[in-house]
Amino acid sequence: MSYRISADIGGTFTDIVIEDKKNKKTSTLKVLSTPSNPAIAVLEGLQKIKFNFKDISFLVHGTTVGLNAFLERKGSRVLLIMTSGISDTYTIARGDRKTLYDVQYRKPKQLVSRKDVHEVKERMSWEGKIIEKIDKKSFVSIIKKIKNENIKAVAICFLHSYLNPSHEIQAKRILKKELKKDIIISLSHEIAREWREYERSSTAVMNAYIGPIVNNYLIRLENELLKKGYSKTLYVMQSNGGVIRAKTAIENPVHTLLSGPVGGTIGGAALSKIIKKPNLICVDMGGTSFDMSLIINGRPKITNETEQESLPLLIPFVDIHTIGAGGGSIAWLEAGALRVGPQSAGADPGPACYGKGGLEPTVTDANLFLGRIGSDSKLGGWMQLDSTSSEKVIRNMAKKLSMTKVELAEGILSIINAKMADAIRTITIKNGIDPREFSLVAFGGAGSMHAIWIAEELEIKEIIVPPNPGNFSAWGMLQTDIRRDLTKNYFTILSETKKSNLKKFFNELIDEASNLLKSEGVSNKKMIFYRTADMRYIGQEYYVNISIDSSLNLNKINSDFHNTYKKTFGHSTPDAPVEIINLRLVAIGLVDRVIDYSKINNQKTTKRVNIKKREVIFNNVKHLTNIINRNSIKLKDRLNGPLIIEEESATTVVSPKYFVNKDLMGNLIIKRKNK
């Protein structure tokens, strides 16, 4: 026997997907997350599968350890070393304000305090030539401070090191010689080989800030797996949508920042190819958060720079927008008005219906009270829900607001649905994208319960609920490949650019990427490279990214730039001079697949006998509603709402105005009835 396995840690549940290579079957399971030590939930889940760890051929892990450490400000204290004369760069940051008319604006709090920023005498020119050699004496006081104050992480960002990193490398050697081995030293050129010293220093600091926590976690997990008999490579999901070895992630942990949420987007891209629908809005509603992303023309939207809580990062990210909206989102009162989220009950104590001491109503409690989840249903396939506790907390809050229990429960869901729909508008309408031209893919434990109301708000015509929606993000992690991203600074006016130079520099990037992929265990035959360039009109600050094919046709590059610019900003200036800023290379190492989902007829159905019925409330009206198992739906069925579809990992709610059928892959397709 041989298995491919993925584990995705969420705020409430840890999801595991198992692909059986021999039988070409997929199975799933859920266990409660263990926030104090996320590795415990992963190991408990794997042990429940009851197989020999030596039979695992591929194991990939999505972790939110780094992200949580950052969001909760529980990372390590960082000492930042910069070139003499520019040490205030990180503290001052950029002078722009995103909210010009916000009278209560507060500058984002940096991860490094001013007293922990130190200077070293050295200097590189803008061409990468050494002007002043590095002064070793500058490190004496720095080393003394690190030792005396037990600092565990150091970030180094020297001026123009993206062109010539020799001084950063030398600085690391000096520190390593004097400091303990467990000290994290983050070099800016290794993480972000690009211009803009503030953004580069911010990225290096983030890498150092979460480094000790992520490293300790991954090392501990690897050791525990080794004890269980797993001796192969542990892979970790990256924020760019690819995977890397855990050992590589330990070196640059910042690449794992969105390791958990990105799995759903990659799953959406895989689904897009299977069902031949190029444009999808992917929504992942779990117990704590609501993650949104776009699949456009079959590919996820990836940005080469992003912000996390207003702190810039120069690394490739799948463009995911997240808000605090999940099944565990708490309903609360502010000035006599009802609010929902972003606070979450999490896994412990969880919603009141978990029976673990939750005292405030949550979204899950509201769904249970309205009958959209049954009191006899088992969350995750095993957790019995306590409807009495849900009713109690809803009753108590309803009294405070002089509302009925039904009005409060439906009000909680209306608020959370509106928040999620508005969040989708942020990534679509505000960027010139019409959501009505997309299908909505709903997953996560709670996504398919709320999908219809989100689609209603946005006038989306089709909702797709994939098989095992509660484990879809974990499934997506098994559909990706090894990925490395490389950048080379290249300031050149396009009209003065020689094709031979472009070819030379791209070949250098390909050689470097090939060596990196080989270190990940990838053979030459399984390597694919994608070339792009950052380009702009001369005199502008920001750029657009242009795909470049292997022909390196300069006229085509020029034309593609103007077209992309116009599509992005609504106008272009074809006669204006254009310059290249960066050359980029995406290196893919193909991972063997064992199941071709496009050829699977997922129609093994069970008979719909003894159909359960219960009263479910829609718009303050009770409907006697059929409760059926997902596996009982046949390919040719057209089932009208109201309907509740249950499965181990999720519940799908079909309101009275909608109907559902099933496609060849086993996806539920939900559409509005003709008026």
Please characterize this protein's 3D structure.
This protein is of the alpha+beta class and 675 residues long. Among the domains are: 3-70 and 215-256, ATPase, nucleotide binding domain (Nucleotidyltransferase, domain 5), CATH 3.30.420.40; 74-210; 482-589, Dna Ligase, domain 1, CATH 3.30.1490. It contains 16 helices and 37 strands. The strands form ten sheets. Strands 13, 14, 15, 20, 25, 26, 33, 36 and 37 form a nine-stranded mixed sheet that branches. A six-stranded mixed sheet has the order 3-2-1-4-11-12. It has a four-stranded parallel sheet with strand order 6-5-9-10, sandwiched between helices. Helix 10 packs across helix 11 (387-401). The chain is globular. The mean pLDDT is 90.
Poorly predicted runs: none
Outline, from the CA principal axes?
Answer: globular
What's the gyration radius in Å?
A: 26 Å
Beta-strand fraction estimate: 25-35%
Helix/strand class: alpha+beta
Largest sheet: 9 strands, mixed
Q: Average pLDDT, to the nearest integer?
A: 90
Number of helices: 16
β-strand number? 37
User: Which range best describes the helical content: under 10%, 10-25%, 25-40%, 40-55%, 55-70% or over 70%?
Assistant: 25-40%
N-C termini distance: 52 Å
For this entry, give a set of tags.
nine-stranded mixed sheet; Dna Ligase, domain 1; Nucleotidyltransferase, domain 5; about 30% strand; alpha+beta; about 675 residues; 16 helices; globular; about 30% helix; six-stranded mixed sheet
